[in-house]
Structure formats: structure tokens, C-alpha cells
Design goal:
With 339 residues, this protein is α/β, with parallel strands linked by helices. The protein contains twelve helices and twelve strands. The radius of gyration is 20 Å and the shape is globular.
Length: 339
Amino acid sequence: MRILGIASQFHDASVTVLQDGDITFAAHAERYSKIKNDPFINQKLISEALRGGKPDVIAFHEKSWAKRLRNIQGRSWHSFKEPTIQQWIKDFYPELHNIPQVSYWHHETHMAAGVLTSPFEECAVMVIDAIGEFDTATIWHWIGGKMIKKHTVRFPNSLGLYYSAVTAHVGLKPMEDEYILMGMAAYGNPHRYADNIEREFFKGPDWKLRTRKNLQRGIDPKFLNRHLYRDSDLDEWGHSPIDYDIAASAQAVVERKIYAYAKKAQELTGSKNLVFMGGVALNCVANSQLYNIFDRVHIMPNPGDAGSSLGAAALHHYKLTGKKVNRFSPYLGANIQAE
């Protein structure tokens, strides 16, 4: 069976083709459109993916109806101007019409992308990101061939949205430049704001935010401005000395929260193996501490949303066959010739 996995419509769109358990193609939309973090699939990408033939089924990385429901609850009316992935395919990709479609939950596909490419037969699974449909962090236990959810943190309480809000606060682009904030942290003083951030922003270990005025961001920008003031003395990159202290403090809090949630995952599952997925799993500085809790850690090389096109395809394959993907490697896709 040929399965086309698609992750699209938010950021870092991608597709994966799975043929009888073999990954025959996987690539980011941005490699073909030349738009960094492109949220939409494009014709060049789809044409490349279909070189081996049309898929038997299309698997999506999230449930569009649930995402719409969350936006209704959050009164995010502008989001209704954005097409769902199903509408996008209907309008622009006639070659994909009349092909059966299946959708899985966002955190399900994150989890599957990690578990079904891992060497583990049993492990704890921790997924932390900005937001799925409603979940922002989940703990699972992979045991006996079953994926059992053990814990959930719900929107708008989100460690990923918090980190993105601080990214925007220091003048960077959220959902894209978080890696720069992580790098800036090395040049700042984490003791300047870390305790204040944790006390003022969060209520307990499960990241319940004290402010909910801006549900789509998770943290009200005005709240940030009141508690994390910036200096006007900017360096050549447009940052003040205080920005580096803010970055270091934000990073310190993220590390504390990830570590605490990892300990919770170990307690809930009793496992010595961990799979860590979701956009927050790209925080490599925090990840190094996980070995203080677990003996073995697997982080799929693309743990963010782009990796979920593989997760959707792999999960559908597993539900049909009970088998993981074959011979996973981070070297996927195809060479693109210079124009």
C-alpha cells in the first residue's frame, strides 16, 4: 500500500510517501518553494512525491474540524479565512481527488513519528509543542504494541507558546526564530528573570498560565512588557543587553519545565527509555538533561510539525499492519539541482 502523509497549513509543511513500510520520499515544502518554513504544500513538492504513482490513501497530521472548534472557542475569527488542508487539496490538486483520506490527532502523529522510527519495544513518550488541536503536551506509554495516553496539558497552557511569545518579545520571529533565542541564552544571565518568570507566568508544574487575555498566543504581549522590560541600547543585531538576560531566563524556565515533565513521564510509565517529540524537542540544550532520568533517549531528527507527515503515514501503516516503518534514516527526499 502506498500512503501519502501530509503536514500542512500552519508552518513547515511537508509530505512523506510510505510504500509497504518503506519511506520512498519525504521532504519539506520550503525546499521546493524557497519560502522558509513554508506552511503550504506546493505543486513541485507534490509532483515529486507522486513520481512513484498515486497513493492509495492520504493521511493528515491533524484533525481540521477540531482545530476549527478550538479557534471558535478562542474567538479567532480571522483563522476562518485560512483554508483547511482538505480545501487546499480540493482547490489546487486535482490529481489527489477521489483518493480516500484519513486524519489523526496532532499529538498522535508526533508520538507515532518518534515511536515508529525508534528502536524501542517499550518506552515513555513525551510530546511538547506550541499547540495541537487542543493538547499542548502529552505523555504516552508505548508497550505491548499499544500507544496509551497517560497525561495531557491543554490549550492555552503551553510551554511552546510561552517560548514563542518571549521570542517575539525580544524582536525575533515566533514559530521560526526560537533557535536564535536559545542561542542568545548563552550570553545572558539566567538568574535575572527566571524565578520571576516562573512565579508570575505559571501556576504549578503543568504550565497553567496566569494570563489568558490573548488565547492564540497563550501569553498577552502587554503582560510580557510589564514584567520583562527592554532597554533601548541596541547592538548590531537589534538586541539590548537585557534581551540576552531575558533569553537566558526564558531558557532556564523551559529547561526546568521539560525536566519536570520528563520526570513525570518516567513516574507514570516506569520506563527507562524515552521518545521525545514536538517542536519543543528541538531545544537541544534542554534535551541533554534527559539522560539524567532515562538510560536511552530517541528524538526523531525532525520532531516538529514537518516530521508529522511521516508520523501520519507511519501511524496509518501501523494500524493496518501492526508494523513499524522499515530502515528509517534522516537522509530522505531527493537531491534538488541548482537552477
